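Hi F.,

I've been meaning to write this up properly since the lab meeting, where we talked about keeping a consistent format for the predictions we share between groups. The idea is simple: the sequence comes first, exactly as it goes in, then the structure tokens exactly as they come out, then a line or two of notes. No screenshots and no reformatting. I'm using this chain as the first example so we have something concrete to point to.
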Amino acid sequence: MANAARLPHALAELLCARGITQAREAHAFLHPEYAHLHQPWLMRGMGEAVARLERAIAAEEPILLYGDYDVDGTTAVVLLKTAIEMLGGHTRFHVPHRLREGYGLQSSVLEAAHADGVRLVVTVDTGMRALAEAETARRLGLDLIVTDHHLPGLGDAIPDALAILNPNQPGCAYPEKSLCGAALALKLAQALLERCDRVRRDPARLKEKILPSFLKMTAIATIADAVPLKGENRTIAALGLRELRRPAGVGLRALFRAAALDPAARALTGFDVAFRLAPRINAAGRMDVASAVIELFTTRDSVRATELANKLERLNRERRDAEAAALAAIEVRLETEAALAADSLLLIDGEGWHRGVIGILASRVVERTAKPAIVVSVEEGIAHGSGRSVDGFPLLQAIESCADLFTRFGGHAFAVGFALPAASLPELKSRLRAYAREKLAVRAPERLLRIHAELPLDRITPLVAGWLRKLEPLGHGNPEPVFLARRVRLVAAPRVLKEKHLRLELSQESSHSGASDDGQAGSPSPQRAMRAVGWGLAERAAQLGLRQASLIDLAYRIRENDHPEFGGLELEIAGVEIAGTQPGPVGQGR
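Output, unedited:
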């Protein structure tokens, strides 16, 4: 990499592993700018979509925004609703109830909207496989604009719509193919606003005020929807997180309070969004009605915003309880049913499991087994399924091989959803078992811990930690780095916390000669003990017989503790082995 000496070696190694080998690419990755965003007009169908929206706004037509009930869908509705109303347009929105209506565009809703005077419907984060519903819209005389990032149907079939905004549709040359639904709504809003005379007279307003505000919502959706955080997605997420330090709306501020986050105290991370903000937003659609999210982000009443944020907090607690109960039952089955545990693809069904949590449950099974998993809830003779996959096994292709069994299905390589008669479950299990046996026969579940770079402990400095923060936001496609340090000495006996966690005091026994942590030639940092914690690793330490003066090879993540008394850099243990027993990557921890 050109000019790599200006970067810490570990960071340069991490960038190379991400395919970034040129100085210009590295600068763009580490310093995202608004100029890195692609022009919305590059997307196929954008001209037709904007022109129709302009006519609707000018004629004061009601515009129906039809969204999805997750973070991506609800934030997309908020973005497009805000943009249209900024231009004087009139919007209505419909977000389906997960349990009563299910995912996707519904002909009954289109018919009701037409009867109520609507002539333009814009979908957000849904609609790409709604061929029959698009035909309903055409028959009724409704103009339909589809904005959706999901893959087209079999044979690249696409709905018959006035315009489709999806970089994955045939013939679309838009450079970034993995935008989430909210990002597509952002692109449409940006193009619409750019054509507005008020913005033309003051173009700086769009760039300096409107677009930064919209990027806040889009960043939350981009991280929550687990699209790859590279390319334009990384730019959107990074710029949006930067803008979230100044949450202007009362809804965002109320959500931050509910999640116990203070963006003024420290910069938000991808972890904060994925595990603290997103679950609370998602809880509305999982457990109740997702329209509460749209109201939260559009209200100007601080009292109402607090009420709605508290409601999301309560629903999130209910979601955790429902998830825990079903997960306990699943874990028992995996431990006691040998035939199930031996399957290459796990399909686990239960009576009455809350449909709002089956996707999360599938993710938990994947984490525990390293196998693709589908969790099915059976209610009143209908089986509702949600699946998650692993690298190298496109789950949508798997369920497409059983397309004739479903009443509806959709998704992408890593996540799917479907419904079918419960009586067809045995046939589905049989077919998917055979499909997975063929496609996964040559591979075993991958439970290896991936080491991204070697970094001896005496190379860890605040300067290196500061450079590593520039990798944020971390997530899918831009994973948090796991480092390897060899021949690390325990300077004290291991401590066990709460009977299952591990606390170690460590120092680097020996370090490689060569470049120092600022990328220049020099000596390692002075020896110092570093704190390390290993969640759930007390038993592992006992198995290895760790004691004071033991030499270990350590896989770890760097953490920054902001506690006023014992803050500073510390380590989170990802894996540990006795030094020299592993020629390559060390064994897996949590």
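Notes:
Residues 449-578 form a domain with the OB fold (Dihydrolipoamide Acetyltransferase, E2P) fold (CATH 2.40.50.140).
The chain has four domains: 36-226, 244-323, 337-439, 449-578.

If this format works for you, I'll send the rest the same way.

G.
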